[in-house]
Amino acid sequence: MSKDYGVEIEEIKKQLEELQQLVSSVMIGSSKEPNEKVGDIEKMQKMHPNEHVNAIMNEIQDAAGTNGQTGAITYMGVFASGGRQSNWVKHRVNTDDLLKLIADNVAEKVLACLGNADRLKILLALLKKPMSVAELVTECELNSTGQAYHHMKPLLAADLIAEETKGIYIVKPYRVQGIIMLLAGICDMYDETYAKSNWEAEE
After folding, report:
1. What does the pLDDT look like over 174-199, one tens digit per residue?
2. Which of 69, 137, 151, 170 could form a disulfide with 64 if both were Cys (CB 3.0 to 4.6 A apart)?
3. Can you list the domains of the chain with their CATH numbers?
4. CA nearest neighbour of 88 among 103, 75, 105
5. Are strands 161-165 and 84-94 parallel, antiparallel or unpaired?
């Protein structure tokens, strides 16, 4: 049996990249030199193996520090399913504005609307493709169309879903990224990859 050297070479490249990332993270973690500060923002350096990502991080740290903000975030994405696609780019979003969503009770209302297993199943199903209520009952393993409508009502009221054509429901196009980014935020609560902080209490 002949060996597939191309596959072996790609695997070796992958292992080398992982090793380089590990060495880089160890070097960063062991550095004793204080980081540069811009305003109240301490600039964390070389957090990601991709230099383009590091450049963006450097830019938003400078922007937040210069403008006296608690922070700034940049994010982008693409989601395609069921013959539809959503792309989004947000740059230098002020974290002070995001924190106001808690004070203004907006976050509470949105999370209360979504904080139900059946509603989340309905959103997941509609992210895959447009569906009728009967299809949602089957896809989401609901007991009846009445149960489906019961859970769809708050999603409709929150403008997360809509009836696109008679009897066919979709996730509103400009809500797709919000749902995906909310899931990304949940993922970040469990995955600390490429995260670095000085959040620990000072001695």
Report:
1. 999 999 999 999 998 888 777 777 76
2. 69
3. 105-171 (1.10.10.10)
4. 75
5. unpaired
